[in-house]
């Protein structure tokens, strides 16, 4: 019942948002988020207790790997929902003032669509992370595209319209390629002489029969299937060179949406690739899939480093940082061994840190009304809380101690050295060094100096705008000092599913 409610509650909340009349829709969003978080915690406990939870006729069957990304999506949804209360309140004030000036009647229709799509977005990510059926996973990722597009277009600017269409077109092509990958994988496992009734648990059925493919002509079909899955889901994940939608969408979306796109949605696409990698390993083709992950991981890191240097748009800076960290994750899972645990820990720490940074970026945008890092000065004096979080977030995202990303990146490096990848390690460290320098210049320039004189002085940091990023920052700091035993066990189990 818990699993079913994980999917039903956000779906039902999304539908209720369209009820007419003035009533506390923002309160419903927050209640939905905390309910989803509580149910996700119960699901995590069930997985750790080896209860093998299942719901909706086997459609939802989470394992340790999926439940990690489910928990991340739920935590970020909760933080975004609290942040949205203050954010939407400010947006309402601006729209009411503008409509009064134009002699128009204010309507909350854009907010209603926004809150509804946010609930549908979380429901789709729940399906992706909790299912063991590759077809249902593909459907869930497709729904995330359709549900998140209106979120990107919330401000209804020309630039946000362009970013939304770019997001829809590029990701739709990627999802179509991933569908072809699913079809090719079914072809690889098709055996007319002994048809298999895999039911809903398609992943386990394919892995159980994976050895049948090894050494036969069907292995070529399986390799082709993984290539299409990697390119298709890699487009949604933001791996270079398929990342071109990501900087525009993340920079134009509202800040809490950008945080969820970067911290939760990209993980869902990564999970689609990892499911394919699991099957490849079971078929004895792990070196092939791992080699592709290492290549695209390094290429993404180098590409991100090139675009981060000299980047003056601070939300695009964070978007390219997401390309970098998706590359780190692909590299870690491609290398395997000890790097797998580091990759799982890195996924957790990156999601928390990047969502925190995007929320703080939203505070900065609200205060300065500009996305140029050259026009923002003196955050330390003008916005002491957000300025401190901005600096701490920068130190965390570039892997500085004592934050959790330092531990995860160092663990991945140990895994690379353990497999004798000196060239890979050199490129990995060089990209990290360039990105550290490239990000430090605009971030520290924004934090230091004297605030511009033309900035209005009537801004006050609200509890809704500061508490969610502060909580996320505290989590990442704690993970750099101590990783709880239950989280270590969860990440170890997830890494074991990938071959650790």
From TrEMBL:
Transmembrane segments: 64-88, 112-130, 167-189, 219-235, 256-276, 288-310, 317-339, 387-410, 416-441, 462-483
Membrane-topology descriptor: Multi-pass membrane protein
Main location: membrane
Recorded GO MF terms: NADH dehydrogenase (ubiquinone) activity; oxidoreductase activity
GO terms for biological process, alphabetical: ATP synthesis coupled electron transport
Keyword vocabulary terms for this entry: Cell membrane, Membrane, Oxidoreductase, Transmembrane, Transmembrane helix
InterPro entries referenced in this protein's UniProt entry, alphabetically: ComplexI-like_HydComp, NADH_UbQ_OxRdtase, ND/Mrp_TM
Domain NADH:quinone oxidoreductase/Mrp antiporter transmembrane: 133-427
Gene Ontology, cellular component aspect: plasma membrane
Compartment(s) where it occurs, according to its Swiss-Prot or TrEMBL record: Cell membrane; Membrane
Protein name: NADH dehydrogenase FAD-containing subunit
Native species: Mailhella massiliensis
């Amino acid at each position: 019942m818990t699993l079913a409610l994980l999917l039903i509650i956000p779906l039902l909340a999304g539908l209720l948002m369209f009820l007419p009349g003035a009533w506390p829709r923002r309160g419903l969003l927050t209640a939905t988020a905390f309910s989803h978080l509580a149910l996700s915690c119960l699901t995590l406990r069930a997985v750790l207790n080896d209860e093998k939870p299942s719901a909706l006729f086997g459609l939802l069957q989470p394992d340790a790997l999926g439940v990690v990304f489910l928990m991340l999506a739920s935590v970020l949804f909760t933080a975004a929902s609290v942040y949205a209360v203050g954010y939407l309140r400010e947006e309402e004030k601006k729209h009411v003032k503008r409509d009064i000036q134009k002699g128009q009647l204010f309507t909350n229709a854009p907010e209603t669509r926004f809150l509804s799509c946010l609930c549908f977005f979380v429901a789709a990510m729940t399906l992706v992370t909790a299912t063991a059926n590759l077809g249902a996973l593909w459907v869930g990722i497709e729904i995330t595209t359709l549900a998140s597009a209106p979120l990107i277009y919330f401000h209804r600017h020309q630039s946000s319209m362009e970013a939304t269409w770019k997001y829809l077109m590029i990701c739709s092509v990627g999802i179509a390629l991933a569908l072809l990958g699913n079809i090719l994988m079914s072809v690889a496992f098709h055996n007319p002489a002994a048809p298999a009734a895999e039911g809903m648990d398609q992943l386990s059925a394919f892995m159980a029969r994976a050895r049948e493919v090894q050494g036969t002509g069907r292995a070529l079909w399986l390799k082709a299937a993984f290539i299409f899955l990697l390119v298709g889901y890699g487009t949604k994940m933001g791996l270079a060179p398929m990342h071109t939608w990501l900087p525009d969408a993340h920079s134009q979306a509202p800040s809490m949406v950008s945080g969820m796109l970067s911290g939760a949605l990209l993980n869902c696409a990564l999970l689609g690739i990892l499911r394919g990698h699991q099957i490849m390993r079971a078929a004895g083709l792990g070196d092939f899939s791992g080699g592709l992950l290492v290549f695209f991981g390094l290429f993404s890191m180098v590409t991100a480093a090139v675009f981060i240097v000299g980047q003056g748009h601070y939300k695009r800076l964070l978007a390219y940082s997401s390309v970098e960290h998706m590359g780190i994750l692909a590299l870690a899972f491609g290398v395997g061994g000890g790097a797998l645990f580091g990759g799982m820990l890195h996924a957790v720490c990156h999601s928390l840190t990047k969502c925190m940074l995007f929320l703080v970026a939203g505070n900065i945008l609200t205060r300065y009304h500009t996305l140029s890092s050259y026009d923002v000065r003196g955050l330390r004096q003008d916005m002491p809380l957000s300025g401190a979080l901005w600096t701490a977030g920068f130190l965390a995202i570039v892997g500085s101690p004592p934050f959790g990303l330092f531990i995860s990146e160092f663990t991945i490096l140990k895994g690379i050295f353990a497999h004798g990848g000196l060239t890979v390690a050199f490129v990995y460290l060089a990209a990290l060094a360039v990105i550290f320098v490239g990000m430090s210049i605009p971030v520290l320039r924004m934090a230091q100096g004297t605030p511009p004189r033309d900035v209005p002085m009537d801004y006050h940091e609200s509890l809704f705008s500061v508490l969610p990023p502060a909580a996320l920052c505290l989590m990442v700091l704690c993970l750099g000092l101590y990783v709880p035993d239950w989280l270590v066990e969860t990440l170890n189990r997830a890494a074991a599913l990938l071959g650790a």
